[in-house]
Amino acid sequence: MKENTEIQTFNHLFTNYKGRFVHFARTYVDDEMMAEDIAIESLMYYWENRQKLDSHSNVLAYILTVIKHKCLDHLRQLRIQEDFVEYVKTNETRKLNLRIATLEACNPERIFSEELQELVDKALLTLPAQTRDIFTRSRYHNQSHKEIADALGLSTKAVEFHITKALRVLRVALKDYLPALFFFGIC
């Protein structure tokens, strides 16, 4: 008989106070579904622990205290998540700003001009004098194959042969820089 009375008491609490408990929780968690979950979990917690309570305990105050603690736990969890999201966002913003600043400061001419020019000069020094002269006239002085051929008394085929030979040597010597060399029109 006692259990039947307890079930009736619980049903009474659930029917008459669930809406109030949900409203109380929603005031703090600002989420209808979460507030309902918290209210129902709190009622269930009361039901599971009712034997431990003093017979003179204020049941409604007890349930409201449970709801309060569950709301606090939920809000603290949200704060931890937001802090983490903010940390990640700040970190990503910092990385993005660093990439922007680095890219803005990047001067491709300066990066490649000194180091690359040294490598090109070294590679060109390994070429025979005539091949080096033809390549220099073609790439640095923008002379056409015909102009170079006329100036040196060679056929345009011979000029093309020497330029191809120079490019082959440069491609081997500058293999790590090929994308940049193609971009700058050296190879």
Automatic annotation (TrEMBL):
Keywords: Sigma factor, Transcription, Transcription regulation. SUPFAM superfamilies: Sigma2 domain of RNA polymerase sigma factors, Sigma3 and sigma4 domains of RNA polymerase sigma factors. Residues 118-168 form the RNA polymerase sigma factor 70 region 4 type domain. InterPro entries: RNA_pol_sigma-70-like, RNA_pol_sigma-70_dom, RNA_pol_sigma70_bacteroid, RNA_pol_sigma70_r2, RNA_pol_sigma70_r4_t2, RNA_pol_sigma_r2, RNA_pol_sigma_r3/r4-like, WH-like_DNA-bd_sf. Residues 13-78 form the RNA polymerase sigma-70 region domain. It comes from the Bacteria. Belongs to the sigma-70 factor family. ECF subfamily. This is RNA polymerase sigma-70 factor (ECF subfamily). It comes from Parabacteroides faecis. The lineage of its organism: Bacteria, Pseudomonadati, Bacteroidota, Bacteroidia, Bacteroidales.
